[in-house]
Amino acid sequence: MKAITFGALVVAITIYIIVAKPDFRVANGVAHVIFPVFHSIGDAVTWPFRAGGKIIKRIHRVSILEEENAELRKKLDAALARETDCDVAIAENKKLIMELGVARNTDYETIIADVMYDSAAINHEIFMINRGAADGVEPGMVVVSFENKMVGIVIDSGLHFARVRSLIDSATNIAVRIAGSEVYGFLRGDGSATPSVGFFSDHKFQGAKGIKLLTSNISGVLPPGIYVGEMKNESDVEVASPANLSRVIVLKFTGQNGEYL
Predict the structure, then answer these.
(1) Between the N and C ends of the chain, which has fewer C-beta atoms within 10 Å?
(2) What span, in angstroms and rounded, lies between the C-alpha atoms of 145 and 126?
(3) Alpha-carbon torsion (75, 76, 81, 86), positive or negative
(4) Residue by residue, what is the 3-state secondary structure of the chain?
């Protein structure tokens, strides 16, 4: 109340001076006193509102941070769950590789190649890749997909290209083994997407859906342990088709006596 009374009194005196005695020097002097006083009064009057506004802003910021923190916690929990799933999958994959004896691409020196085109005909499946002798590709090397599944064997190579006979070609006849066992046989191409397999090491053995086949080196032609395909029934095997491939991996293998390059 005192501040308000003083403020009103100052205003009245100022108006009186300006109206009754219009002396600008006096008015300027009074203004230098009035404006700081009113500024201080205004600060005093508006301080609770300004303080309240700052508190509200801080509360709002804290609320936003809490929401963001909760969202980050959810993402972190999800990431940790995915990491755990990946660790489990990696462990299971390593265990499966050891149990089945599957060879990995890292066991060989490899060459990445694009599938140029295929020349498919009745009972005949040969395709070309854009890597050749200049890249180290030689006849007898094995070609696999990026899923580590055997696609075929290099039959000849030019300087910058090579021809690959796929597993479904009618001239294909490779030694195979049932994963996780010592049962051996031969996979024969017939031009279809499901070449047939016959087992010779155990004539009583009956093939069945879901059985996985790996390459065998009993003939000294192929490296062992490369995944060939999965049986659909007692004799047919589902293998990789060149028509579904755009890129492949060449395994630098001599094709003689199981030697690596």
Answers:
(1) N
(2) 15
(3) positive
(4) CHHHHHHHHHHHHHHHHHHHCCCHHHHHHHHHHHHHHHHHHHHHHHHHHHHHHHHHHHHHHHHHHHHHHHHHHHHHHHHHHHHHHHHHHHHHHHHHHHHHCCCCHHHCCEEEEEEEEEEEECCEEEEEECCCHHHCCCCCCEEECCCCEEEEEEEEECCCCEEEEECCCCCCEEEEEECCCCCEEEEECCCCCCCEEEECCCCCCCCCCCCEEEECCCCCCCCCCCEEEEECCCCEEECCCHHHCCEEEEECECCCCCCEC
Average pLDDT over residues 250-260: 58
**Token couple for 128:** 């070309």
Q: How many residues does the structure list for the chain?
A: 261
What pLDDT is recorded for position 33?
56
Q: How far is Cα 103 from Cα 94, in angstroms, rounded to an integer? A: 11
Alpha carbon distance 198, 185 (integer Å): 5
- Which tens digit of pLDDT belongs to each residue from 83-119? 666 565 555 555 555 555 555 655 678 899 999 865 5
Q: Which range among 3-7, 110-114, 192-196, 222-226 shows the weakest confidence by mean pLDDT?
A: 3-7
Token output for 122: 């009745």
State the pTM of this model. 0.57
